[in-house]
Amino acid sequence: MTPSCGVCASRGEGMRFVSLCCGIFLALALPASPSGQAVGPQPTKVASASKVPVHTKQKVAKKPPGPPAKELFSAIKMPAAEAARSIGFYAKGCLAGAKALPIDGAAWQAMRLSRNRNWGHPSLIALIEKLAVEARAHDGWPGLLVGDISQPRGGPMPSGHASHQVGLDVDIWLTPMPQERLSAQQREELSATSMLADDKVSVDPHVWTDAHVRVIKRAASHPIVERIFVHPAIKKALCEAAAHDSDRSWLHKVRAYWGHNDHFHLRIACPASSPCRAQPPLSSDDGCGKELTHWLERVAPKPPASKPAEPARPQPPKPEITLDQLPAECRAVLTKAPGGVAIPVAAKPTGAPDKASKTLAPTKRAPEVGPTAQ
Asked: In whole angstroms, what separates CA 191 from the centre of its chain?
């Protein structure tokens, strides 16, 4: 048995022997290192924070939003049998009690019949019919070729437009109506004529006429009309044609915008009986100054680059509008007889506050003039 320091002291060997005895005891008690040297107590190892298991919350799968709203609205072939109402915004809404523009009229023909987009608010349909007759009688215009208006119950469309959702927009071709009635096949295959010259910033004098100016001026002069969108080159031609007119107030409603080189997009204001939201007011000028100059610079062909441009990064597809994003009243419009559709379970309200109710709230963003401007 290894003697203790106390035992050595009890034998009276003296302090030196006591020190020697204690040293031997400590040497035997401590563990040896691989090199044979005694080592002291080892520090306690603390686990790295990165190795400590972290308990994370389980991700809860989001409820699917249901099919895009365009699939629901484009499937319906007849309007909702109720009072006429434009609901929501031009680019996010729906239409109840729509009226069809007859495919043939006294001074108009409807185009692209397979799309079934010759439906609108009765106020717009009445204006189209009146404008067609007036233009033939007073402006030397043989008649209107009418493009898309809206679907039977409005809403987003499978292709072609972001607006036209509440039955208050119509595309009117700048191609004069022929004297003969077009066949169904011709109405699908005939293309509208572009008014642009090769420079893309002026109109082609071989196709643009004074009658074009007169029919657009007549359309803009109707009090119910709120906006007319045309290509910047056409806006320029209109400004030049009216340069010496005493009354240029109608030009204020005609605004330059992308596309619209072969038609003009006419939009009327929200009818008093409809829960729809108007666009912000336009600026007070006629759009023939700095605004037009800016647009012409944007659409002018660009000179070839001195070096190849780097390929643009592909952009993710824009999310589809779902039924939950439209005003709540659009649900009832979808299901209304005759021919309403059942709303898929995934698209029904979940009990959370209806985000679509914010659609009618006043906007705080800077005013814009485009067809989809909020």
From this structure: 26
In a domain, 230, yes or no: yes
pLDDT tens digits, residue range 70-109?
999 999 999 999 999 999 999 999 999 999 999 999 999 9
C-alpha to C-alpha distance for 22 and 5, rounded to whole angstroms? 5
- The structure tokens listed for 84 are 């006429």
Query: 174 with 282, same domain?
Result: yes
Give 267's DSSP letter: E
Report residue 125 as tokens: 């349909």
Tokens of residue 342, six digits = 């059942």
Centroid of chain to Cα 352: 23
| Number of other CB atoms surrounding residue 13 within 10 Å | 12
Same domain for 142 and 22, yes or no, is: no
- Amino acid 340: pLDDT: 86
- Could you tell me if 118 and 146 are in contact, meaning their C-beta atoms sit under 8 angstroms apart? yes
Quick check: is 44 in a domain?
A: no
Res 362: pLDDT? 39
119 contacts: CB under 8 Å, gap ≥ 6: 79, 95, 98, 99, 100, 101, 149, 150, 151, 152, 154, 167
> Tell me: the pLDDT tens digits for 256-293?
999 999 999 999 999 998 999 998 888 889 999 999 99
Mean pLDDT of 8-29: 50
Residues 104 and 245 in one domain: yes
Helix 232-241 / helix 290-299 crossing angle, nearest 10 deg: 140
Burial call 82-107: b when 16+ CB within 10 Å, e when fewer = eebbbbbbbbbbbbbbbbebebebeb
Q: Label residue 266 left, alpha or beta by phi (over 0 means left) and psi (-120 to 50 means alpha).
A: beta
Residues 12 and 93 in one domain: no
Instruction: Identify whether residues 5 and 88 lie together within a single domain.
Output: no
**Per-residue pLDDT band at 316 (split at 50, 70, 90):** confident
Which residue, among 112, 148, 109, 113, has the nearest Cα to 129 in the 3D structure?
109
Q: How far from chain centre, in Å, is Cα 274? A: 22
Distance (Å) of CA 184 to CA 28, 159, 224, 265: 109, 20, 32, 23
| Structural domain harbouring 344 | 69-301+318-360
**Please, is 298 exposed, middle or buried when counting C-beta atoms within 10 Å of its C-beta (0-12, 13-18, 19+)?**
exposed
Helix or strand or coil: residue 71? Answer: helix
